[in-house]
Amino acid sequence: MGRGRVQLKRIENKISRQVTFSKRRSGLLKKAHEISVLCDAEVALIVFSTKGKLFEYSTDSSMEKIIERYERYSYAEQRLNMTDDESQEKWNLEFPKLVARVELLQRNIRNYVGEDLGPLSLRELQSLEQQLDTAVKRIRTRKNQLMHESISELQKKERSLQEQNNLLLKKMKEKEEQQQQQQNSSNFVFPRPPPQSLRPSSLSIGGDSEQAGAQNEQLGGDQTIPNTTSAMPPWFLRPTNQ
């Protein structure tokens, strides 16, 4: 048969109690060290014996830091629990107010669209009309503002496009002038000398006679061309007696 569960109770024998305390204390410190190393946990262990002797163990961080962290955590947890309770009570009080507020807003929305106007009095209808007029004026003001801004933006774009267009026209005109100049320079032809037949004849007498003979041959030999180079008649040269 297996061993049964041992009932834990205070050891009456003082010597046995001291021996058990020493053994269990060593095992407890060993287990605390093992869990801190294996699980990378921060462990703090404080043990007081029956005689009031202190035995403690803490990980690499000091015991004071672990205790301060414990106190902060405990305080925050207490505040959280208190806050949850207070918040629950507060929401219980605020819930009816919020429900009434939502119903009022829904009714106002229906009135703004022209619904559920029967229960309203004359004063309430006048107030509703005034609110709607004020809302329409604000809407128109905002609409006009947006229209003016849009028109101003379009005018700026128009001016920018006009400037770009003028710049492009100027560049095209300059390019056309350059092409025209290039075309004129390519069409320029240097003057050629006149043909041989149009050149001026020689001033020599022999040359004149030869040219005259050639012209006579072209005319068929029937007509004679007077020779301007023949001697003048002697009577033309003879002096007249007075």
UniProtKB/TrEMBL annotation:
The keyword Transcription applies. The keyword RNA-binding does not apply. GO terms for molecular function: DNA-binding transcription factor activity; protein dimerization activity; RNA polymerase II transcription regulatory region sequence-specific DNA binding. Transmembrane segments: none annotated. It is found in: Nucleus. Residues 173-242 are annotated as: Disordered. GO terms for biological process: positive regulation of transcription by RNA polymerase II. GO terms for cellular component: nucleus. SUPFAM superfamilies: SRF-like. Its main location: nucleus. Keywords: DNA-binding, Nucleus, Transcription, Transcription regulation. Residues 88-178 form the K-box domain. Pfam families: K-box, SRF-TF. Residues 1-61 form the MADS-box domain. Probable transcription factor. This is Truncated transcription factor CAULIFLOWER A-like.
